[in-house]
Amino acid sequence: MINYMKSEYYRLFRLKGLYITSVICFLLIAAAAAVLYYFGQSDPNFPYNTGEFFYSNVIGSGLLIVLVGIIFNSTLTGKDMSLIKQSVSFGISRKIIFWSKLIITLSCFLAVCAVGILFMIVLGENMFPSDQQSVRHFLIASVNMAPLILSGFFLTHALKMMKVGDIYIIFVLLFIYGFSSNLLRNLFRPVTGLNEIYKYTPNTLLNDNLMHFMDGTVQFEYLYWIIGIVISVIAILIGAKKFKNQSID
Amino acid sequence: MDTIVQTYRLTKRFKDAEVIKPLDFTLKKGEICALIGKNGAGKSTIFKMLSGQIKPTSGDMQLFGKTGKKKARARKRMGFMIETPAFFPDFTAQQNLEYFRIQRGVVDKQRIHEVLEIVDLAKEKKKKFKEYSMGMKQRLGIALCLLSSPDCLVLDEPINGLDAEGIMEIRKLLTKLNQEKHITILISSHILTELELLATRFVFIKNGVVVDDLSKEALVDKSRKQILLKVDDPAKAARVLEQAYVDLQYQVLPDQVITIQNYAEKAGEINRLLVDSGVFVREFRTETLKLEEYFLGLVEGEQQ
C-alpha cells in the first residue's frame, strides 16, 4: 500500500490542476476580504465590514465546498482511472487502490481546507473589526461543518470509484447537501413520525449551523457528526464493495 | 517443465452470453504461445481474467502454482499489456515509468533507462505521452511490462499500430527475451504471419472454446500440403496420375496448373512419372498452408 500511495503522491504533485484549484480557492477568500474591506472603508455605514460576516461566507458555503471536493477527488479518480488496469494486473488489490486514492485526495483536500481556514482567520482578524468570540465561533462552526463536508467527499469518492459520471455526482450532491430538506419536508409532512426527518438532512444542518453562527449561539453539536459519519460509512461501504467486484477495462 | 498458467474449467458470462466456456488451459515455462481467434472469440477476456481485471464467473486458475490471495503476489512476476496501454498523457515516458517504478517497488532507478533503451524510446526525453504515435505507445506499453523484470509476458495485440520495421523489432525483442532471459510469452495478434514467425505453440479459440492446440512442429505436420505443378498438357498429366494413384485428389486450374492435395510426400516420384510419360513439367513445387490459411480452414471448416 505504501508503494501505491507513494506513486499516487508522485502523480498528484505533478498535476497543475491541483495547484490552480488551490490558488483559486485562496484568491476567492482574499477577494471576498478585499471587497468587504473596500466597501467598509468607502462607506462607514456598511454593515458587513465585520469579521463575523467575513467568516459566515465560509460557514454558509457548505454545498460549494462539497462541490470543490469533487475537483480534489477527481485528481486521482478522473481520467487517470484508466491506468488502474495496469496496477490491478500487477497484483495490487482493488482495496489498496480504493483506500489509497481516498486517503491521498482527502489529505490534500484537508490540507487546503486547513490553510484556507488559517488564511481566513489571518485576514479576518487583521482587516475587520470583530469581537473576541468571532474566531472561536468560526472554529466551532467549522468543526460542526467538517463531518458533513467530509461525508460529501466520501460520497464523491465512492461514486467516482463506481464510475458514476460527474454530472450525476453533482446532481446527487446538490440534492443531498442543497435541496433534500425541502423535498423531505413536503414529502413526509402528512406522515406522523417522519414529518420531522427533514431536520436531520445535511442541508438543514448546514443552514442551522450558519444561523447559530450568525446569532452568536453556535456550539459544538454531536448531531452533525452522527449524520456525517452515517453518510460516510454507508457511502464508503457501498463504494468499496462495488469497486471490489467491478470489471476494469 | 514448470507451469506458469493453469486454468480449470474457467468460464466468463456477461449477462446472458457465455463468452468463455469451460476453459482448461496450461502455459508452460519457456513457451511462446499464440492465442489465435477472430474478434469476439474471447482472447481479451481470457487475458483480462488472467490479469485480474475481470473476475471469472466460475472455475479456478493458478499462476506460478499459486491460487487464491497468493495469486496477486504471483502476478508481480508477470507483465501484462492488454489492449491499448494507458499512461498519463501529460507525462513523458520517463515520468510515466517512474510512477510505475515507485508503485511496483523497483529499487533500481536505472531500470527505467534500460527498458526505454530496449524499446528504443530512450531518446524521446521531452515528448509527452499524448504526442506519441500509436507505435510509440505500444512500445512504451512493452517497456512497462519489462519494468519489473517479469518471468512471463502476456501481450494482447502488442504490434497493433506498428509499422513493418517496428513489428520486426518487436518480434526480435520478444524472441530475444524468450531465448536469452527465458521469459515465457502468451501473445495474441491479428497479424498471423508474425505469430507464425514468433510462436512455438498455437492455441486456436472460437466462441470461447479452444478448438485446437498444437506445437509449431505439429502445426507444420498438420498443415495440409499440396503439390502445385504447371504442365504443357494437363489432360494427359491427369490421365497419367489417375492411372498411377487411384485415390488421387487433384484439381485442374486455369493456366495449365494442377494441384494435388494428397501424396505430397511422393512429390519426387510424381515428378519422375510425369517426365517419363512425356509430360513437359514447367513448374513443380510443394506448398504448405500458412498459419492464416490453417486458421481460416479450422474456423470456417467448423462453421460448415
Summarize, please.
Chain B: InterPro entries: AAA+_ATPase, ABC_transporter-like_ATP-bd, P-loop_NTPase. The complex is a heterodimer of chains A (249) and B (304). Chain A is mostly helical.
> Could you give the distance between the termini of chain A?
22 Å
Judged by helices, strands and strand pairing, the structural class of chain B is: alpha/beta
How many β-strand runs of chain A? Answer: 0
Low-pLDDT parts of chain B are none
Secondary structure tally: strands of chain B: 13
> How would you describe the shape of chain B?
elongated
Please report the first level of CATH classification, the CATH class of the largest domain in chain B: Alpha Beta
Terminal Cα separation of chain B, in Å?
A: 38 Å
**Main sheet of chain A, how many strands, which sense, barrel?**
none
Cα shape of chain A: globular
Low-pLDDT parts of chain A are: none
* Spatial extent as radius of gyration of chain A: 20 Å
Strand % of chain A is under 5%
Any idea of the CATH topology of the largest domain in chain B?
Answer: Rossmann fold
**Tally of alpha and pi helices of chain B:** 11
Task: Give the tags.
heterodimer; A: 249 residues; mainly alpha; 0% strand; B: 304 residues; alpha/beta; Rossmann fold; Alpha-Beta Plaits; 2 domains; six-stranded mixed β-sheet; four-stranded antiparallel β-sheet; 13 strands; elongated
Describe the structure in your own words.
Chain B: This is ATP-binding cassette domain-containing protein. Chain B: It comes from Oceanobacillus luteolus. Chain B: Keywords: ATP-binding, Nucleotide-binding, Transport. Chain B: Belongs to the ABC transporter superfamily. Chain B: Residues 5-232 form the ABC transporter domain. The complex is a heterodimer of chains A (249) and B (304). With 249 residues, chain A is mainly α. Chain A has one domain. Chain A contains ten helices and no strands. In chain A, α1 packs across α6 (94-127), α4 packs across α7 (134-161) and α7 (134-161) runs antiparallel to α9. Chain A is globular, with a radius of gyration of 20 Å. In chain A, 39% of the residues are buried. Chain B contains eleven helices and 13 strands. Chain B is 38% helix and 28% strand. Chain B is α/β, with parallel strands linked by helices and 304 residues long. Chain B has two domains: 3-215, Rossmann fold; 224-288, 2-Layer Sandwich (Alpha-Beta Plaits), CATH 3.30.70. In chain B, strands 5-6-7-3-8-9 form a six-stranded mixed beta sheet, sandwiched between helices. A four-stranded antiparallel beta sheet of chain B has the order 11-12-10-13. A three-stranded antiparallel beta sheet of chain B has the order 2-1-4. The longest helix of chain B has 17 residues, at 164-180. The A-B interface holds A 3-4, 6-7, 10-11, 14, 79-80, 82-83, 85-93, 245, 247-249 and B 48, 51-55, 71-76, 78, 80, 82-83, 85-89, 91, 95, 98-100, 102-105, 144, 148.
